[in-house]
Write a structure and sequence with these properties.
- The structure is a single chain.
- The chain starts with a strand and ends in a 7-residue tail after the last helix.
- It contains two helices and six strands; from the N terminus they run ββαββββα.
- The longest helix is centred in the N-terminal third of the chain and has 15 residues.
- The chain has two domains: about 55 residues, no CATH class; about 35 residues, no CATH class.
- By secondary structure, it is an alpha+beta fold.
- The strands form two sheets. Strands 1-2-3-4 form a four-stranded mixed sheet, covered by helices on one side.
- The radius of gyration is 21 Å and the shape is rod-shaped.
Length: about 90
Amino acid sequence: MVVNGIDVTIEGLSDVSEQEIINYIDYVENETNDKIDTLRISSAGDDTVNIDYVLQPHKFERIRRITGYLVGTIDRWNDAKKSEEHDRVKHGMH
């Protein structure tokens, strides 16, 4: 089933309402600060549920390795670090 654009699978439970699913979605998205791609709700066997989810991938332009740090963006760098990046030899992206 699809709820709020998210592919949801229910396993071993017969009485899960759409509102309960929305509550689980809201909980996960609030805890992770990310959007869910898929959600699986299953019985844990002791009156609780297991919630398994896959988050939507983040988009990024590229990853740079500057003096040992992996970063996706340089907008928060200080002037010295920006200068270091500017002076580096650039290789083509494949």
